[in-house]
């Protein structure tokens, strides 16, 4: 049986050790989470080191899915939280684990917690893809959490809020899933590139990140994304002569 739409996905980006994947799976199942997604695991998948470390959380490992990129892994997610202790120069809303858990329970659409590699954490481009930064008030002189610890913090808060949040009667259009948002961004970038918008080349990457940050802030719903893409398509046709 697939996980419910309210259950957040745990996305491990370029995890390095099978043992750490297993420990993360154990932390997930402790709090009822089973949707594990792996992005380009260093040693491939399945990994023989994951099973013993999972200590019985086999269902999580069996259901784990592997993706080539983070964008693919969160394509069906309307809320993507990048877990990091640093903002890394990306301007996005910042929440703690409790605030993120409350939002996941209250807002429609699938959500994902994204965790980076054990040594270095998420790269700037990984964080830029997310809509919100999730951080915790950790000791500034020793800001080192292992992967399973980071996962269990988020999973615990999600589990705790499950019994506290009352369903809302307000019917809202759910935010657009990530693949629709990516399509809108790609369409706009394709229109801007021939105009010289990304010159000089040395600033192109930073400009693209700034544009992405702008477009991921509002939390577009499906209708809004479709409408804006219609506007872009219309503009791409050029001016029309009046009848």
From TrEMBL:
CDD domains: SpoU-like_TrmJ (cd18093)
Domain tRNA/rRNA methyltransferase SpoU type: start-end pairs: 9-156
InterPro entries membership: Alpha/beta_knot_MTases, RNA_MeTrfase_TrmJ/LasT, SpoU_MeTrfase, tRNA_m1G_MTases_N
A GO cellular component annotation in the UniProt record: cytosol
Spans through the membrane: none
This protein's record includes keyword Membrane: no
Gene3D superfamilies: 1.10.8.590, 3.40.1280.10
Alphabetical keyword list: Methyltransferase, S-adenosyl-L-methionine, Transferase
One GO molecular-function entry: RNA binding
A biological-process GO annotation: tRNA nucleoside ribose methylation
Top-rank lineage group of the source organism: Bacteria
UniProt xrefs under Pfam families: SpoU_methylase
Entry similarity comment: Belongs to the class IV-like SAM-binding methyltransferase superfamily. RNA methyltransferase TrmH family.
Protein name as catalogued: RNA methyltransferase
